[in-house]
Amino acid sequence: MTVTTSERPIEEQSRAKRLKALTSSVHEGVDRSIMSTASFSSIDRYKEFLAIQYLFHRDVAALYADARLQEAFPDLVQRCRLPLVMADMDDLGAAAPDGGAPVFLADTPIDVGSALGWLYVAEGSNMGAALLRKEAQKLGLTDDLGARHLAPAPEGPAPHWRAFVAALDAVALTDDEEKRAKEGALEAFARVQAHVDARLG
To answer: Residue 79 contacts by C-beta under 8 Å, 6 or more apart in sequence?
Structure first.
């Protein structure tokens, strides 16, 4: 049976919908891991959550500075959330964790296919931030103190996501690059899960 996210076969859907279908189970697993570990039960636990966010957004920060990707996504620089995560850590006096080298390095050639998969995961996390933002507010954190990186985009999370998806779907890829985009998305979720296991497990 062909897996679908609508009435169209997955291979006929947009790139974003194909990636969503491919990663739905691992995405749900990451979400369950974060919520089941009571990462919003106290400020100390939230600091561990921030460490996970820092490590992952540091992993992908070089993508947001890549000139070729910026051509495809004109607002890419503004979308980078690592500075916001770091500001949140400063607010709470949390030190940056040592997670080894990030996945993507500055001034190193980036494979566009793989990069799109990782960006899909990084940008998609914005859509789930609304729930986490409410949990952070219960700890007394706000969009200006400790939870900046969870704040919605000025235009709202849905329009922000739709603009990204439109640009994502418009990038022309070879079959090999398309395959690496799928692999990249799975690798990104696995990386987040590894950070969660290391910090909250």
So the answer is: 64, 73, 123, 164
Alpha carbons within 13 A on the beta-carbon side of 26: 20
d(CA 193, CA 88): 21
- pTM for this prediction: 0.91
CATH code: domain of residue 125: 1.20.910.10
Given a contact cutoff of 8 angstroms between Cβ atoms, the answer to whether 62 and 106 are in contact is: yes
- Counted domains in the chain: 1
Q: How far apart are CA 64 and CA 119, in angstroms?
A: 9
Q: Is the dihedral of CA 13, 121, 168, 184 positive or negative?
A: negative
pLDDT, tens digit (0-9, with 9 covering 90-100), for 81-115: 999 999 999 999 999 998 899 999 998 999 999 99
Asked if the structure places residue 150 within a domain, the reply is yes
Q: Is residue 6 part of a domain?
A: no
- 6 φ, ψ to 5°? -150, -160
